[in-house]
Structures are given as C-alpha cells and as structure tokens.
Design a protein that fits this description.
This protein has about 725 residues and is α+β, with helices and mostly antiparallel strands. The protein is about 50% helix and about 15% strand. Strands 7, 8, 15, 16 and 17 form a five-stranded antiparallel beta sheet that branches. Strands 4-5-3-6 form a four-stranded antiparallel beta sheet, covered by helices on one side. A two-stranded antiparallel ribbon has the order 1-2. Strand 10 and strand 11 form a beta hairpin. The radius of gyration is 38 Å and the shape is elongated. The relative contact order is 0.12.
Length: about 725
C-alpha cells in the first residue's frame, strides 16, 4: 500500500522491516509542473524551486489498516501519516495516527448530529415519525466517536502486537488470496489517485471556468424541481386492494349483496389471473363500536367493503386501481366506487379518513351546504389527477313519513304513542316496543321473543296503511281496531342517512384521492377550485381543507425550514472551530452540489418528492459536510506551512481522496438495497445515493478549486481570517 507524508520535507531514515515501502512520488506541483513557495533565509524571503522529496520506508499493510480503523469513526477513513514503528513504537504510532484528525473528526461528527436537531421541532405526525430517527442517529454517532477514540486504538495495539513480533524476527508469512487481492487493489488505486491528481491540477489551474460551469450546472439542475411531484409518503406495491362500493342510496342489504357479487365477477375479468380471493362485507355492523376501527366510510346497508387479495405480493396496485376505476363505473351506473388506503402507513397518515384530501363544509344550513357541495364536487371531478370524488353524507335516504291526525285519534281514544308502537311492532318487531324474554329452565338462558310481520306481507303502500292500531291493552271495552291510513297521512320523503359534526357545527365532507398525479399537485388544484367558488358559499358556512394533504404541506414547510436551519447551524459550528468565516463557507459550497444530485436522482428514477426524500437530503448534508471538512482542514495545514494556496488545494485533494471516497462509498453501498426496495423509505435511499455521488465529486474537485480561488493571496488571506 502506498502512503505519502505531506508534513515533512526531510526524508525518513532507513527503518526496520515493519514498514511499507513508500513509493517515490512528487508531492504536488503547480499547474506548470513547478512548485514554488516563500521561504525565509537570513531574514529575507526568496523563491525556491522545491524538488519533490523521495521517501523510503516500510509499513505493514495490516498495521496501516489498523491505524486507519483506529484513527476514524465508523463512517469512513482518515489519512494517517507514516510513522516509524518497531517493537515498542507500535503504541506511540497508533496514538499519533489517532490524534492526527481528532479535531476534524469531532467537528464532522458534530455536524452530522446538528443536521438532525431541527427535526425535534417538528409537530404532528412528522414529529412522531422522525424524532425517534433523529435521536437514534445522534446517540449512535456520539457513541461511535467515543469508541473510535478509545476502543479501536486499544484493540489495534492488542491485535497487532503479534504481527509486530513476527516482522521483527523476519517472518514474512504466506501470501493468501486476500493479501494478493489487497495488493492489486492498492496498485490500481494508486494509479487512480495519480490520474485524479492530474485532473485536480487541471481543474485548479482553470478554476474560474470550472467553478462557473459547476455553479451553472447546479442552478440548472434545480429547475428539475418543477418536474418532481410532492407526496407525503410514496405508494408501494402490495398484494391487497381495499375497495369501497356504495350502491344507490336506499338499496336494501340483500340487493347490495347481489350487486357486490356481480362486481366481484367483473373484478376477476378486469384483472385476469391476478386475483386469488375476494371478501365482501356489506351493511352496517351489529355494534357501533366496530365503526371506530374502520376508515371505509360505511353509512348504510347500501355500502360494501371489498377486499381483493392478489396473487403477487408486490403487484402494481396503482395500475390495477386505475383499471378498475375505468371499468366498474361503466358497468354499474349509479354505484360509486372508491379505493381505501391499503397499507398501514397510509391509514395512519389519513387519520382515519378514507381519502387523503377532505374538503369540509361547515355551517347550519345543511340543505344549502349540500347544494354547494354538489357544485364543488362536480368542479373537482374535472381536475386532472383527481379520483374517487364523492360526498360522504347522504340526505336522500328514502323515507316514509307518517303524519298522525291527533284530533281524529283522540276521538277514538288513541294517542300518537299508540300509533307509533303499533307501527314499530309491525315493521321492526315487538322487541322495539315491549321486549319480552323467555327463560329456558333447562339451561337457565333467557331468549328474546320478537314478533314481527313477515316482509312479504308489507310490499306496498296499501299493506302499510292497513296496519291495525289499538291501545295495546287487549281491548276490554270491545272497541274495534283502527287502520293506520285512517289515522294519518303517509308521504314519501328523504332524510339524512348520516349527520356529521365538526366543532359542534354540522359538516359535509367531500373526499378526493389522486391517481396518476402527485398528491401535492391535486391538492393545489383543489385549493384553487375552492378559492374560485368561494363566492357561491352559503351565508354563514365555511370551507376547510383537511386530511393527509394538509399535514403533508405543513411537514414540507417544517422539513425545508429545518434543512436550512441545519445548514446554518453547521456553518456556525465550523466557524467556531476554524475561527474563520471564509473556510466554513468553502466547506458548505459542496452542499448545493449534493442538492443537485438529489434532484437528479429523484428525477431519473421517476420518484416524487416526499418526506423520506427530504430526510435523505438532511442525512446527505451531514455526510457531505464531514467530507468537505477533511479536505479543507488539511488544505489549511498545508497553506499555513508553505503559503501556496494552489498547491495546498491539490495536496488536500490528493491526500484525502481515500477517506472521502470510502466514507461516501460506504454510505452509498449501504443505501443501495433500500433505494431498490419496495418500501416507503426507498426515496430516502435514492436521495442519499444521488446526493453523495455529486457531493463527492464536488468535495474532490469543486471545493479545492474554491479554496484555491478564495486563498489566492496565500498566507495573507489565511492570517486575515484567524
């Protein structure tokens, strides 16, 4: 493994066998191939052409890997300087390697922790989701820093002691597969690093055009944000579809079940070979408690919930929903179909609502509010991307109203209570008016006895009007029973099937889902339609947008504000550590490139922006800042030593390329499975991968160019910021 010292101009003396041969290489040259620096001799500075020093020595490969491990946190590598190690010099060498970058590593760890602090100010569902994530990352990073400063150096001193003794006695050992692989890798990486140094020197030499080109590409990449949609959480593939069917209001339960059977048959035809099972649940539950655990919007016997189980556990349910939305309304006119949230995350984010957007109209005048709701729903149905637009409440439940003539009934010694009790006993059973129980003396169980007129004997208005009415006392006076139609008038009318209230006021809800378009775009259009129709709103009524979409909007504002606050806090922390306003600015110049990489990653993978994607952006900001700190801190050291900003920038990139690449690659490789998974955290992985790819490019090329340009006056520029 090749290793370069950038801290000394004096060649190392010949060392014992426990050394890695350090290749002869030029430290760094200026763009013209000659490095010049200001040195003082006899009190007078003079320009001296510096020949590249030649280093000779040996350092064991495994020991070097141990030094890397001891000197770094778990997230990457540091560049250790060659240390003369032999016998008792093992422990001092480990300590020197560990102490070399303790300050930059501490600052980088603090930056990674700080970017997560704004998540603690999130409220609502966003806070519940991401505050535990932020706590876990912060405590894990702090613990890893402590262990990398204590446990890892201790383990290195303990485990490498035997290898030191083996080298002292001249035992070379056999070269296994991994040793040969490691040597070939080091040869290839050394060549790659030399090529990188040439590219970096060229970029630094033409730093102004390169910086302008990079900034222009970054700004142009931000224009892709207009093509990215906005979702709270992305939809995923699954093996189940939940659909709600509402037959025409007034449909009896047995008729609704027949329609459900026909719908099941059509679903199998529309999705041939994809459906394994269908479960229909029609009507209201026997207990009202069951309604508290559902979000389907069932309000009467005409409603059915249809659970569709698919053959493939990762089926494209969004495409299947689109197919069913196209086919079913054509074959079943008058029946309303809507699709419920299928996964548990979507159900939680909807807060029990059957749709992500709820347009709620509140006010006392329900008839006028319903008329306005119908106009508003008709406008929303025409919006591109809007689907399953329906009004939850129904005010047209078919009802027969019996208006009793109290004067006539009183003349026959009957009351309105007698009329109601006889009608209820005939229509609903005696259990509604006079519950009667029969005790089984054998097992001691009581059974409800309910007497009711068979439904086939109540099939017409004439059957209803001929219901006998008496006082219910056995008619001791011999008075004949009267007929219901003679004591009142039966009229047909419509009544509310469901009455909802929000903050005491009656409310009407219009539920809206999205299809083929992101939730944010549909929500913006719905809000625009509500604003345009505000002049038609009945007097005393108000319209409010609720549901997942509003929660998403507030979460976006909080996360974007938290991201900006994170960058500001990171900048201030670096300012305090570096005692400079300029160098921290140079460090964070890599962050716009990271944002551009995130945008490109989401755009190329056809992924909408979401809360997980924003979380990935925050994670990417911390890692990108940590890598830039390693480069700029080393460049400051070199600048303070020889005063050449161009050479310092090239030296920093050349020396820090290994830890920067390995830190970024470790994160990228770790996020690849998540980015390709069928989970709602896939946008997080894609954002991190894309952001770190561009951020690493910016750290290794753009940041050194900015450093060279900002410190073009050499030591004077450095000392002015100390």
């Amino acid at each position: 493994m090749s290793f370069t010292s950038l801290s000394s101009n004096v060649p190392l003396r010949r060392c014992p066998p426990l050394r890695v041969r350090i290749e002869q290489q030029r430290l760094l040259s200026d763009p013209e191939g000659r490095a010049r620096s200001e040195r003082k001799a006899s009190g007078h500075p003079r320009a001296v052409e510096v020949e590249p020093p030649r280093f000779h020595g040996r350092l064991d490969d495994q020991l070097l890997a141990g030094l890397y491990e001891a000197a770094l946190q778990d997230r990457g590598l540091a560049v250790a300087r060659p240390v003369e190690l032999a016998g008792a010099e093992l422990e001092p060498g480990i300590i020197a390697a560990a102490n070399q970058i303790v300050v930059p590593t501490l600052v980088a760890t603090l930056c990674i922790c700080i970017v997560w602090l704004p998540l603690f100010q999130l409220s609502g569902i966003s806070g519940y989701l991401f505050q535990p994530l932020a706590e876990a990352i912060i405590f894990a990073m702090l613990a890893s820093f402590v262990l990398s400063r204590t446990l890892v150096p201790t383990m290195a001193a303990w485990l490498l002691r035997g290898q030191v003794k083996a080298h002292e006695h001249g035992h070379q050992g056999k070269h296994g597969f991994f040793t040969r692989f490691q040597r070939r890798f080091e040869q290839g990486f050394s060549q790659f690093r030399y090529r990188y140094r040439e590219v970096l020197a060229l970029a630094v030499h033409h730093r102004k055009p390169f910086i302008l080109c990079f900034v222009a590409c970054t700004v142009a990449s931000m224009s892709l944000l207009a093509f990215l949609g906005r979702d709270f959480f992305p939809s995923i593939k699954s093996g189940e579809i939940d659909m709600h069917m509402r037959a025409p209001i007034g449909t009896r339960l047995e008729d609704a079940s027949k329609i459900a059977v026909l719908v099941d048959s059509q679903i199998r035809k529309s999705l041939p070979g994809q459906v394994t099972n269908l479960v229909d649940n029609c009507g209201l539950p026997s207990s009202s408690l069951n309604l508290a655990y559902t979000s389907d919007g069932t309000i009467g016997p005409q409603d059915c919930d249809i659970t569709i189980t698919l053959k493939n556990e990762q089926s494209p349910v969004d495409d299947y929903r689109s197919t069913l939305r196209r086919d079913l309304p054509k074959l079943f006119p008058g029946t309303v179909f809507s699709f419920l949230p299928g996964d548990i995350t979507a159900k939680i984010l909807n807060f029990g609502l059957p749709a992500p957007i709820d347009v709620q109209i509140s006010g006392r005048g329900q008839a006028a509010n319903m008329a306005y709701a119908q106009v508003l729903a008709a406008r929303i149905r025409k919006l591109p991307g809007a689907a399953d637009v329906n009004i939850q409440q129904a005010f047209n439940e078919p009802t027969l109203r019996i208006a009793a003539d109290r004067s006539l009934a009183s003349g026959m010694n009957l009351t309105e209570g007698n009329i109601a009790n006889n009608a209820l006993a005939t229509l609903s059973g005696s259990g509604q008016t006079a519950p009667t129980y029969w005790l089984d003396t054998v097992n001691g169980i009581s059974h409800l006895v309910n007497m009711q007129t068979p439904q086939d004997q109540l099939a017409s208005m004439n059957d209803l009007e001929t219901i006998p009415i008496d006082r219910g006392n056995g008619d001791p006076g011999g008075q004949q029973s009267q007929l219901l139609g003679a004591l009142g008038t039966v009229t047909q009318t419509g009544t509310p099937l469901l009455v909802s209230h929000y903050s005491i006021l009656p409310s009407i809800d219009i539920y809206v889902s999205n299809q083929g378009r992101d939730l944010g775009a549909v929500y913006d259009q719905v809000a625009q339609v509500v604003k345009e129709t505000n002049s038609q709103l009945p007097h005393g009524a108000s319209v409010h947008l609720r549901g997942q979409a509003t929660t998403m909007s507030s979460a976006y504002v909080q996360l974007l504000g938290g991201l900006a606050l994170s960058v500001l806090l990171v900048y201030l922390v670096i300012v305090v550590n570096f005692q400079s306003w300029l160098d921290p600015f140079i460090i964070i110049t890599a962050l716009p490139g990271a944002l551009a990489g995130i945008v490109w990653s989401l755009f190329l993978t056809h992924t909408n922006g979401s809360v997980p994607a924003l979380t990935g952006a925050i994670m990417c900001m911390g890692t990108a800042t940590a890598n830039s700190i390693l480069v700029v801190s080393f460049a400051r050291e070199r600048l303070a030593e020889h005063g050449d900003a161009v050479a310092a920038a090239i030296e920093a990139g050349y020396a820090r390329i290994r830890p920067v690449l390995m830190t970024a690659l470790a994160m990228i490789i770790g996020m690849l499975p998540m980015s390709m998974s069928n989970t709602q955290n896939a946008p997080l992985g894609r954002a991190v991968v894309g952001g770190l790819l561009v951020a690493t490019f910016a750290t290794l090329l753009f940041v050194p160019c900015v450093f060279a340009m900002m410190h073009r006056n050499g030591k004077k520029a450095t000392e002015s910021h100390l």
